[in-house]
Amino acid sequence: MRIASGILASLSIVVALSAIGAGSVVINEVELNPTGNATKWAELYNGGDEAVEISGWVVTIVNLPWSGMIVVPDETVIPAGGYYVAEGDPQWSQDYQGSVTLVDGMRMKVDESPLIVDDGDSDFTYGRYPNGLDTDQRTDWKLMKATPRAENALS
Ligand SMILES: [Ca+2]
Ligand SMILES: [Ca+2]
After folding, report:
1. By CB atoms within 10 Å of each CB, which of 40, 45, 49, 87 scores lowest?
2. Residue 152 within any structural domain of the chain
3. Domain that holds residue 52
4. Distance from the CA of 47 to the center of ligand 1, in angstroms?
């Protein structure tokens, strides 16, 4: 019994640690309507103090009935304060709105954007401002010039 509860205790510590890690990653910026026929993308940002491995995490752009999935490749790590840009498929349709969800390797939801309508067909995007702001409100998101793999800034 003592051994079993020891293992259980270690397991709970591991679960708690990974939950903390996952909680520091947000969908930070979304380009649903790039200039011309360029590829849609979503930028992830790790606002925490520790690196987070995001291998196998899935970014999904949803504009029902359509949705497009981007699976993060193996051995992908976002360092503390770092970024990762998940790029969509160039064959995807050229519609310009949707919401974006992020789930981890266990398919647990990590973050979700509000419905974003980007009808500009330009290098403007919607992103969290100030960078990484996550209060679960629509006002976290602002229209801005694209800053892939860099801090969001109002133009
Ligand atoms: Ca755009
Ligand atoms: Ca950015």
Report:
1. 49
2. no
3. 2-145
4. 24
Distance 84 CA to ligand 2 centre (A): 10
CATH number of the domain at 95, please.
2.60.40.1260
125 alpha carbon, closest ligand = 1
Q: Regarding predicted confidence, which is higher, 19 or 129?
A: 129
Whole-angstrom CA distances from 93 to 2, 61, 89, 120 are: 57, 12, 9, 16
C-alpha distance from residue 96 to each of 34, 122, 146 (Å):
9, 11, 15
- Higher-pLDDT residue of 25 and 15 is 25
Q: How far apart are CA 89 and CA 98, in angstroms?
A: 15
Q: Encode pLDDT of 102-155 as tens digits.
A: 999 999 999 999 999 999 889 999 999 999 999 999 999 999 999 999 999 997
7 Cβ contact partners less than 8 Å away, ≥ 6 residues apart? none
Q: How far is the CA of 7 from the centre of ligand 2 (A)?
A: 41
* Ligand closest to the CA atom of residue 42: 2
